[in-house]
Design goal:
Elements (H helix, E strand, L loop, with lengths): L2 E9 L3 H15 L5 E8 L6 E7 L2 H8 L2 H4 L1 H4 L2 E10 L23
Antiparallel strand pairs: 1-3, 1-4, 2-3
Length: 111
């Protein structure tokens, strides 16, 4: 079953330095097995940054969490606070689009 990892980071870094580090590390995420997509976001009110990860399965997500790349996220961004949430995918609004379009997940066929 596909899974989503949501990570929100509060950091003392200024926005430019935070973004520089995001861009520096971004290519490494392309090689993560089972990671279909990652979306980066920023809360304009707080400056907090999030990563929303779309995995082909919970097993792929769990394997990622054990990697050096995942374990170094807080240190890489000098995180003051990190919030992680894991969700299983229930349904897609548009099953023909997005990271799970070709997953064959049964929930994708529900309108």
């Amino acid at each position: 079953m596909p899974a989503i990892l949501f990570v929100r980071i509060t950091s003392g870094l200024d926005a430019q330095e935070f973004e520089r580090r995001l861009l520096e590390r971004r290519p490494r995420f392309r090689d993560v097995p089972g990671l279909l997509q990652k979306v980066y976001g920023r809360d304009s009110a707080t400056g907090d940054v999030c990563g929303i990860y779309f995995f082909e399965s919970r097993e792929a997500l769990d394997a990622f969490r054990e990697t050096e790349l995942a374990r170094t996220i807080p240190a890489a961004y000098e995180a003051v606070e990190v919030r992680r949430e894991v969700y299983e995918v229930l349904y897609s609004l548009r099953p023909d689009r997005g990271p799970f379009a070709e997953s064959g997940h049964p929930a994708d066929t529900t309108a």
